[in-house]
């Protein structure tokens, strides 16, 4: 059975009558229970509302710890959205999760990375909005930590392959921006390359959907 032939989000929640066009229902991504992140840790978006300052340094200073949190969140966002019960919701899910991560990222040494992730979030959101499927409801997905996303916009089922390819191009542009920024600074090279790799892995999966 293909992804598009899976039971609709509404039926998965057993609340078809309650889920309106403004998506009051919540759906749980497939295989969410008992999963672990790609980095081996428990999945769950458990980082704080903002990435803390490294010990003894101002917030925004490069550190392996902060970079690791950003990479983990990007990887978990990828895994969470790709497991969406319907592929039509993946693009706007990525937009929402990238936006959350960008908001948490500090400025300072991470300014260019923050901007690249935020721009990818805006591009993905615009793509989903411009290609919304009026036949499908907006829907919330339940994050591993328990909170639900805002209502997500599904893209047109008939164009999902083309739109996923377009989304992959948006993500690839963010990856390219990060790699170029890495080349301009020896000090931040390794950090930006790690963030770029996390973004790039999303691109690969989008093209495989």
Automatic annotation (TrEMBL):
Q: Which UniProt keywords apply?
A: Signal
Superkingdom is: Bacteria
Polar residues biased stretches: 25-40
Tell me where the signal peptide lies.
Answer: 1-23
Annotated region described as Disordered, given as residue ranges: 25-59
Question: What protein name does the entry list?
Answer: Uncharacterized protein
Species of origin reads: Rhodovulum marinum
The lineage is: Bacteria, Pseudomonadati, Pseudomonadota, Alphaproteobacteria, Rhodobacterales
């Amino acid at each position: 059975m293909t992804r598009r032939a899976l039971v609709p989000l509404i039926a998965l929640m057993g609340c078809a009558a309650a889920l309106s066009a403004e998506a009051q229902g919540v759906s749980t991504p497939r295989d969410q229970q008992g999963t672990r992140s790609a980095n081996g840790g428990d999945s769950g978006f458990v980082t704080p509302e903002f990435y803390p300052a490294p010990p003894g340094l101002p917030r925004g200073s490069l550190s392996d710890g902060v970079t690791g949190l950003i990479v983990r969140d990007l990887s978990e966002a990828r895994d969470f959205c790709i497991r969406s019960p319907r592929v039509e919701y993946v693009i706007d899910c990525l937009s929402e999760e990238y936006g959350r991560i960008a908001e948490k990222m500090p400025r300072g040494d991470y300014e260019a990375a923050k901007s690249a992730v935020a721009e990818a979030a805006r591009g993905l959101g615009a793509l989903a909005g411009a290609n919304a499927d009026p036949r499908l409801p907006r829907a919330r997905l339940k994050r591993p930590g328990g909170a639900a996303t805002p209502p997500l916009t599904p893209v047109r089922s008939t164009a999902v392959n083309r739109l996923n390819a377009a989304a992959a191009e948006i993500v690839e542009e963010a990856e390219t921006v990060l790699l170029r920024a890495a080349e301009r600074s020896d000090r931040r090279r390794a950090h930006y390359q790690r963030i770029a790799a996390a973004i790039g892995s999303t691109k690969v999966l989008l093209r495989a959907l």
